Amino acid sequence: MIRRSWLAWLPALVLTSCDYLVNDYCSDMNFASVDPSTVSQINVFDTRTRETNDLLLATLTSASEIERFFQFFSDDERGWHANAFGVPVGDRRIVYFDGEDRLGAVSLGDGFLVGQGCGYFFARNLSSSETKALLEILQLEEHSNP
User: Fold this and answer.
1) How far is CA 109 from CA 14, 38, 48, in A?
2) What are the angstrom distances between the C-alpha of 130 and each of 37, 65, 111, 118?
3) Residues 45-49: contacts with CB within 8 Å, 24+ apart?
4) What is the DSSP code (8-state) at residue 2?
5) pTM, whole model, 2 decimals?
């Protein structure tokens, strides 16, 4: 009988640990817990204008527009991840409000979203069709610049 040393398991242990440290996942970003009927408006800002204030690109106020926005997220809350190299920063910030009270926000970048959930900031990759669908919901053009 061959006796295995604990050193034989070391590579597997290191690879598993690195994956845990580099890729942490959040399975519930809490979008489904937001009641869209409590959201009075969604503002979309261009965050590339740091010299002044963020530029307001769009405001959604109708119940159907707000419902579509949250439906986009509640359809699939999987795929949110963080890694040791940091979370990217999107160039559009999407903030949703109940009157004057800020309820939450996500950031939209080129092919990704960033949001806060599970106690940390997580990113989610978007396919080109998902990006196009979200931009349509937000009433923005695919390559809109201020």
Assistant:
1) 32, 26, 11
2) 24, 17, 9, 23
3) 45/92, 45/93, 45/94, 45/95, 46/91, 46/92, 46/146, 47/89, 47/90, 47/91, 47/92, 47/93, 47/107, 48/91, 48/146, 49/146
4) P
5) 0.75
- Write the CA distances from 35 to 40, 75, 97, 125, integer angstroms: 11, 14, 11, 25
**Is the dihedral angle over the CA atoms 132, 44, 118, 70 positive or is it negative?**
negative
List per-residue pLDDT tens for the chain, 146 residues long. Answer: 455 554 454 444 333 333 344 446 666 677 767 889 999 999 999 988 766 667 889 999 999 999 999 988 876 667 788 767 787 888 999 999 999 999 889 999 989 999 887 778 888 889 999 999 999 999 987 655 44
Structure tokens at 145: 């610049």
What are residue 122's phi and psi, to 5 degrees? -125, 150
